[in-house]
Amino acid sequence: MTDDPREIHVEHLLGRRVRDSRGVSIGRIEEFCVDTVEGLPCVVEVHVGPGALFERVGAFLHQLPFFSRIPWSPRLRRIRWDEIDLSDQRHPRLRGR
Fold first, then answer.
1. Are 28 and 18 in contact (CB under 8 A)?
2. Taking a C-beta distance cutoff of 8 angstroms, is the pair 45, 30 a contact?
3. 21-49, pLDDT tens digit by residue?
4. Would 3 be classed as within a structural domain?
5. Is the pLDDT of residue 54 over 80?
6. What distance in Å separates the CA atoms of residue 13 and residue 25, rounded to the nearest whole number?
């Protein structure tokens, strides 16, 4: 762990199930989008659910002849980093509705 409360190890969040304010699962964290903010790398978006998993592994599979013919385009769920409550990092939740 780090001493700065604004810093966390995102690798520990991969695969964690994200729930909404009602406790309903919206999917697992599969991908992070990083941008440079004030000269430092910063996570700005999280991709959640089967669409995000397909985004991660599907790029490779889509290059294979058999898989490229399968019409599968799951919905990609993108969540801004500031919309996720990480006060309990083992159980991430969406803020608000």
1. yes
2. no
3. 899 999 999 889 999 989 988 899 999 98
4. no
5. no
6. 15
